[in-house]
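Sharing a chain and its predicted structure for anyone who wants a worked example. Both blocks are below, sequence first, tokens second.
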Amino acid sequence: MARRGRPPKPRAPRPRPPRLERARPTFEAVVEAAERVLHARGAAGLTTNRVAEVAGVSISSLYHYFPNKEALASAVFDRVLARFLDAIVGELRVATSLDDATVRVGARFIELSAPRLSMYAQLWRLRTTAEAHERIAEHHRVLIDEVAAMLVRLALADADADARAHAFVIVHAVDGIVNAYGNNPSAVDPARLAPIFARLLRGIAQT
């Protein structure tokens, strides 16, 4: 007997990127609209109908690429992780000292996060339903490689294993602080974080 009513909800909350380049603007417009809805209405307000309305596309067009709201959150995660990774890696590769890296990365982080800080906090709450944990872990692995390479380049660590151990601690220490700040931005002035980060990283690198 054929199943009546709605088709079963897709289990994998992943978007279906367009195969044709001419469809790319529609896909990106929907992802941008999902960011805007998260910023304005939070995780609870992220619905496919609302995102389609903000994006200016039909609901059928949205469902062609995003089978559910979890797929929308998944696509936003991909965009946000790529945005921050590209910016941070770029600064790490040109930093001339650990203090310079701290200032550069801190400035870029504030530049990227300040306009939509509430959106990032809401997105973080969707990391499980969006199945983003492995992508976040991969993001960390890339950053550990980059920080280790910077430490070797700046003669702050000699052996590759030693550099990676220091980089592991640095990346996860900073990630924990950033996540705590993102979930409670009123707890501390972000301008005060950079010098504290600098002291923290100097202490780790010198051990």
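Comments welcome. The chain has a mean pLDDT of 86.
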